[in-house]
Amino acid sequence: IVRTFTQTAAMAAAIKNVTVIGSGLMGAGIAQVAAQTGHHVTMVDIDEVAVGKAKDRIGASIQRVAKKKFAQDPEAGQKFISSALEKLQISTDAISSVKSADLVVEAIVENLDVKKKLFAQLDEVAPSHAIFASNTSSLPIGKIAAATNRKDRFGGLHFFNPVPVMKLLEVVRIPETSQGTYEAMCDWGKAMGKVTVECKDTPGFIVNRLLVPYMFEAVRMLDRGWHAEYPENTLFEPCELLTNMVAEGKHGVKSGKGFYEYNKK
Ligand code: NAI
């Protein structure tokens, strides 16, 4: 246990230099929050114009954050802005940008082959201790990690849009992800001000696995007409688990127990 803790603490403490690849909607948000929370960040994109514009957008967004966060203390707000911007570099050269990285977060186009090609190249040049993570929404992390020789230092860090606002971070582990890597990713997520939740490498992880069928059902309802009744639809069949829970008085918060136990204070 002591060794695990030491390794984890060492890895988490080591995440100071973060390279974010992709400066679109998600990459720019991740880079912004990382810089705001004191990390040295290099944000990379193949598109020079895009990465320049992303930096401008980040500047404007940090100003808005500072205005809110330091409403009573504009001087501290200015310090917050300049210190975050000083920590943010931009580049179009992924290879040289990972040479001193402790963590690489990829947020490029959602294409398995493109992501694999990128990680295979980065694996050759990044420091051996560096952790690689993908922000993919729908591709298996295991398939992306297979392009590298560091599966034990590979995982998913799935943020939500807009990154500076959304608190949740899904931390995805593949079977090969080491405990030290997993804990270092969680600790980094917390240092970014996020609430981390552990996910297995399954399609949609947690949030999209719940959200996408829910949204599809709304579309299907629209497709078949809202007023039609479908008594044969299995979706509306009583569920045994729920029936039993109701019979046992497990009514959720109001009864102090349901899927969870609630402590009355
Ligand atoms: P985006 O299209 O806004 O940005 C992608 C950026 O990656 C572009 O600027 C593009 O020039 C750059 N890029 C493409 N190939 C590259 C390469 N080989 N090297 C460097 N840069 C490259 O995409 P967005 O929405 O930011 O999504 C990025 C990733 O994040 C995807 O994997 C997506 O599934 C995931 N994601 C998206 C969410 C969303 O709400 N949009 C939420 C959570 C995850």
Account of the 3D structure:
- With 265 residues, this protein is α/β, with parallel strands linked by helices.
- The protein has 2 domains: 2-203, NAD(P)-binding Rossmann-like Domain (Rossmann fold, 3-Layer(aba) Sandwich), CATH 3.40.50.720; 208-255, no CATH class.
- It is 46% helix and 15% strand.
- It has 10 helices and 8 strands.
- It has helices spanning 2-14, 25-36, 48-69, 74-86, 94-97, 112-125, 141-145, 179-191, 207-224, 240-247, and strands at residues 17-21, 40-44, 88-91, 103-106, 131-134, 154-158, 168-173, 195-200.
- An 8-stranded mixed β-sheet has the order 3-2-1-4-5-6-7-8.
- Helix 1 (2-14) crosses helix 8 and helix 2 (25-36) packs across helix 3.
- It starts with a helix and ends in an 18-residue tail after the last helix.
- The structure holds 1,4-dihydronicotinamide adenine dinucleotide.
- Residues 21-27, 44-47, 50, 94, 107-110, 114, 118, 135-137, 158-161 line the site of 1,4-dihydronicotinamide adenine dinucleotide.
- 1,4-dihydronicotinamide adenine dinucleotide binds next to helix 2 and helix 6.
- This is 3-hydroxyacyl-CoA dehydrogenase.
- The record marks 158 as: Important for catalytic activity.
- InterPro entries: 3-OHacyl-CoA_DH, 3-OHacyl-CoA_DH_CS, 3-OHacyl-CoA_DH_NAD-bd, 3HC_DH_C, 6-PGluconate_DH-like_C_sf, 6PGD_dom2, Mito_3-hydroxyacyl-CoA_DH, NAD(P)-bd_dom_sf.
